[in-house]
Amino acid sequence: MQIGNRSGRLVLIEGDRALDVERASDGAFGPDPQDAYERWEAFRQWAEGQDASAGEPFDVAELGAPVPRPRQIMAIGLNYADHAAESGFDLPENPVVFAKFASSLTGARADVAVTGDQVDWEVELVAVIGTGGRNIPEAQAWDHVAGLTVGQDISDREVQFWGNPPQFSLGKSQEGFAPVGPAVVTLDEVDAAADRSDLALSCTVTHPDGTSEELQSGRTSSLIFTVPDLIARLSKIVELYPGDLIFTGTPDGVGIGRDPQVFLQAGDVLRTQIEGLGEIEQTFVGR
């Protein structure tokens, strides 16, 4: 099943059709996309019996962030060995954790302002918590995941490295810097298409002159700290809540790690794909 946010309303998605949950459930579930995660088990059981193909046609541009108001957005740095190397760091012994603030969320299609001269890209698998808790055992961690989605950890490197120590969270929380979508895909649907622990992920840019290039390409099997490991480690310290987002890290190929460095410019179109989860697209515009 795919859970989406169509113009601010909770929907189930199949192909190019979206089933409005409030109407299909006769009001048993409300229109707010966030409510699906607050009542996760009841919602999941109801939704599994629905035929989303009976819904209305929709345009991907109508899709907002599928989890619009998470209580926590945690992001993991240096979680691929090649990215740690290009960043000049040793492999971390523990997850490197920072926050992306909820005001930076946007959906599958969005215009994003180029806020400076060093705006960078980072394709990321995002795990969405369904059942929260503390001290979640790694062996049971997947049971706490509602689904997976595509994310971009867009970063203003000038703000990120304002001082010593750097401002990771601020540099990654400008408006539109946390695009996610197009939908939250439940694990059963992911498993039907691919191996949830070994998903191909990539991003490409198309420049205003029409030329395109692949920026990043990797597989989630290369994660240093896997999704279950992250959930177990994080939940030892903080309580995880339904609807929380965990950005799991990016492979190598970011702009700041190149020689010479390369960054996004106004007019660039960034497309981000993850196997079994779909694609998101951002168009970068001037300030």
TrEMBL record:
Keyword Hydrolase among record annotations: yes
Molecular-function GO terms, alphabetical: hydrolase activity; metal ion binding
Pfam family, one: FAA_hydrolase
Ranges where the Fumarylacetoacetase-like C-terminal domain occurs: 73-284
Keywords: Hydrolase, Metal-binding
InterPro entries documented for this protein: FAH, Fumarylacetoacetase-like_C, Fumarylacetoacetase_C_sf
Ranges in a coiled coil: none
One biological process term in Gene Ontology: small molecule metabolic process
The organism's place on the tree of life at top rank: Bacteria
Similarity comment: Belongs to the FAH family.
Name this polypeptide is given: Fumarylacetoacetate hydrolase
Native source organism of the sequence: Brevibacterium rongguiense
